[in-house]
Design goal:
With 556 residues, the protein is of the alpha+beta class. It is 35% helix and 17% strand.
């Protein structure tokens, strides 16, 4: 059984009385009023305070507060840790994250440097590949500390970020192996944010797939168990949990957290590694939160993603940071899973599209096509506001008790994509009744007499709704949104007050990450998201200075 707070129950909420059609007292009978021109003039302009479709597709979640039992357990774990040393370890963790997060992957930058990098990459592929060892040696960084190892990543346009620990020193891409000190710093600084993001993603999964109630969970890169805390707050059906983490200190921390919260303890085990064909690791829900980007190479990540999918009975959730390089890791994991499913199970036709029969994307993409941001300056990312407990504020030396966590994610499920029985472009309502009948049955009909859709109908149709990938731009009389469509394109949609008042009102209330069911007045494909490799050196020589400078900016 799903468990939601009041703020999370969006779907099928009762329409407020103020949204109902008012009765005109000039008419003795409501039937006479419905047959009059006055009713036709009003009924054509009925604006609902949000439709069931918009509530169902809403992803936005307000400020997430870490539950008191979890906050008290973390406080007990870090009580004996020196605050100054924990601050130093926190800065080392931030250095490790920034060393990979702030790297601009292939095509994710602006200007001539990115275009030159794309040309160099093409030439290196033609010559037999990249010399990664030389690239690592050319990057300046202080001597690696114990527990740190170099991570091969793709350098892009941006220079290497400066270290927060070692002044005037540029960082080399690396990750940290967590010891006892690093584990305590992670729990104090990053566990609340991980919990908030996991709660948002898993709540969306529960809303989109209402029949899914996992009883077993496999958590890769479990850390202190943040994903399990979020899953327990979404579903009450969780009975068994298997956590995988290569750090013995993190496993000890997770065990300590379970001891501090006996009411949240479940049957399960904590393991140091995940091996192929390992027994007792298959689960209904497999999740990896902020772990894939810390693996040493793309080859290791690919093998890990395949093992996680092989251990997935139903749904796989991958979450990582909302920076260019981690977003690329998540996107490539999705592409690899779709490729595996297509090769092993073949494809089937759903409408006019051919999709793999053994897997489908629940979120954030409304299709199984390639990521539309590949080789473009953009990437898929979303945000979640999280309240900082006191120990997090002290560790980060922050005066604000709230932070915004950027993240990227995918939700993959076994089986083909559910068919769109009505068709997304079919705007024909199910049925109409009179306003009088609608007032008598508000749980079945909307104020304008349109039949309400069931939860199952909304869940099925939501697979084909576009997703808002940026915060909507609100202007007087119109709203502009950038959406990822079911056709695999990034388009800019405009909703005007004169074209469709209901769509305009809903667009003004929409948020970044929501699924949006309305059709726009106008739509154009965003040239900013069009893959461009740029001119060759010979073509650049033939251009004048003004033409070369124009290449440094992308069109809006």
């Amino acid at each position: 059984m799903m468990r939601f707070s009041t703020s999370q129950m969006y779907a099928l909420k009762q329409v407020p009385d103020s949204a109902w059609t008012p009765y005109n007292p000039d008419y003795e009978d409501i039937d006479d009023y419905e047959a009059s021109e006055d009713f036709d003039d009003y009924n054509s302009d009925v604006i609902l305070r949000g439709t069931d479709e918009v509530r169902f597709g809403r992803k936005h979640m307000g400020l997430v507060v870490l539950p008191n039992p979890i906050a008290n357990a973390i406080q007990a774990c870090i009580a004996e840790t020196n605050g100054r040393s924990m601050r130093h370890d926190y800065l080392r963790l931030v250095d490790a994250h920034r060393s990979t997060s702030e790297i601009t992957p292939k095509g994710k930058g602006r200007g001539q440097k990115t275009r030159q990098y794309l040309r160099d990459e093409r030439e290196k592929r033609e010559q037999g590949g990249r010399d990664t060892q030389k690239e690592v040696k050319d990057m300046k960084m202080p001597r690696l500390l114990p527990g740190e190892r170099v991570q091969i990543a793709i350098p892009g346009e941006r220079p290497a970020p400066a270290s927060l620990v070692y002044q005037k020193t540029r960082l080399k891409p690396h990750v940290i192996e967590y010891g006892p000190a690093e584990a305590m710093a992670y729990v104090a600084a990053f566990a609340p944010g991980t919990y908030g993001v996991a709660l948002n993603v898993l709540s969306e999964l529960a809303m989109r797939v209402p029949e899914f109630e996992p009883s077993t969970i496999l958590d890769f890169g479990c850390g202190p168990g943040s994903a399990l805390w979020a899953a327990q707050d979404v579903w009450s059906s969780v009975q068994k949990y298997v956590g995988i983490d290569s750090s013995e200190a993190m496993i000890d921390c997770a065990k300590r957290m379970f001891e501090e919260m006996p009411e949240r303890k479940v049957d399960g085990e904590l393991l140091r590694y995940l091996a192929p064909d390992q027994p007792n690791t298959h689960a209904d829900l497999v999740i990896s939160a902020f772990a894939l980007s810390e693996l040493p190479s793309d080859a290791v990540r690919q093998t890990t993603v395949e093992m996680l999918w092989n251990n997935t009975r139903d749904t796989l959730v991958l979450i990582d940071r909302g920076a260019p390089n981690p977003a690329r890791v998540v996107s490539e994991a999705r592409d690899y899973l779709i490729k595996l499913a297509s090769e092993s199970n073949g494809t089937v036709e759903v409408g006019s599209m051919k999709v793999p029969s053994g897997i489908h994307t629940v979120a954030p993409f409304p299709n199984e096509l390639d990521d539309p941001t590949n080789n473009t300056p953009a990437w898929f990312q979303f945000v979640q506001r999280v309240q900082r407990p006191t120990f997090t504020m002290r560790t980060k030396h922050s005066k604000s008790n709230a932070e915004v966590v950027h993240y990227s994610y995918i939700i993959m499920r076994r089986g083909p994509r559910p068919p769109d029985s009505r068709g997304y472009l079919d705007s024909t309502p199910y049925s109409y009744v009179s306003v009088k009948e609608a007032q008598n049955e508000p749980e079945k009909y909307l104020p304008d007499g349109t039949q309400r859709k069931t939860f199952a109908q909304l869940a099925r149709e939501a697979y084909y709704w576009p997703r808002i990938i940026m915060q909507p731009i609100k202007r007087k009389g119109h709203v502009v949104t950038d959406v990822c469509t079911v056709d695999g394109k990034i388009e800019r949609w405009t909703f005007t007050k004169t074209h469709d008042k209901q769509a305009y009102r809903d667009a003004r209330k929409a948020s970044w990450g929501d699924l949006f069911p309305h059709l726009p007045k106008t739509s154009i494909e965003r040239s900013h998201f069009t893959p461009v490799e740029g001119p060759t050196p010979e073509e650049l020589k033939k251009m004048n200075r003004k033409q070369r400078r124009s290449l440094m900016d992308f069109d809006d």
